[in-house]
Each structure stands twice: as structure tokens, then as C-alpha cells.
Amino acid sequence: MQRFLFFLDHISIWVGKIFAWSVVILTAVVAYEVFMRYVMRNPTGWAYDTSYILYGALFIMAGAYALATQAHVRADVIYRLFPVRAQAGLDLVLYLIFFMPAVLALMYAGYFFAEASWRIGERSPYSPHGPPLYHFKSLIPLAGFFLTLQGIAEITRCIMALISGKWPMRVGDVKDIGEELVAPDQNITRPAP
Fold it and tell me: Which residues form the Tripartite ATP-independent periplasmic transporters DctQ component domain (predicted)?
């Protein structure tokens, strides 16, 4: 079962790392636009569209990565005081009632949203160049799919924690500071991604 969880984690991490490169492109586009606008006094007509498309792609496609590496912000002041089985039970209920229905709805509605965009050849109305948007609207159901996969991994982790009383190991390249605070003397090792 652990190999299955690591497989799903690796998919989410891989997708997140691929889309993280859009930050580099986004930075270059914004720097170029600032240079052209304020130094050359000749702003571009495409930088605004490019920047919000890249940011949107990064934001939506990084969700599964953030879930796999536990990088989401959570207010767990009281939650961390619960025993593992109580944490797992609470997480399981929240995943089943809120998370999974929401990401399935995102995938379902996003498919029709993207399909309509492809059908009409939707273009951006915010600039004279009007770059195509349908490619990027296709990321909506795709993000829902990757979030669903990672949600399955998280639900499986909750069930395993309910049964065993301890959280299963997790693949991740971000170590939670809470681990350092709770067990500063223990050497916590994780498998390499």
C-alpha cells in the first residue's frame, strides 16, 4: 500500500515541479514588461495576458503538489494535540464531505468549461492581440484530476492511520517545521522522491 501512496505522491510532485518552471517564465515576462514600459517607454501588448495566464496555470496546477507535500496552510493549533486516530478520523470526514465532492465538481464542470472554450476558439478580451485561452482552460479539469488522485492518497493515509494508530510515511521534499518542534531529537528520515 505504501508503494501505491508513494506513486500517487510522485505524480503530484512531478506535476508541481513541471509547472513551477512557469515562475521563471513569469519573472522574465514581468521583468521584460517593466523594462519596456519604464525604460524604453514602449509597453508590450502581450505581457499582461501572458502573466495572468502563467500565474493561473501555476496556481491551479500546484494544488496537488501542495497537498502531497503538506504545504497548504492549516490552522492546526488544536488539531496537533489530538491523538493520531482522531486526526485521521477528522481528516477522513473532511476529505469525504468537502474535498472530494469539490474536486470532482471542479473536474466535471471544468471539462464543460474547457470544451466550450475549445469549441468557440476563445481568446482573451483584455488585449488587442487576444491570445487563445482554450489551452489554459483545459488545465481546470486536469487540475481536478490530479487533485482527485492526491485526494485518494490522502484518504488512504487516513484509513491506514485509523487502523494502525500512526501516520504512514510520506514522500515530500518539504519537511514540516512541526516535526522539528514535536521531535527535535529524533532523526526523521523520509524516502527520496
Answer: 26-158
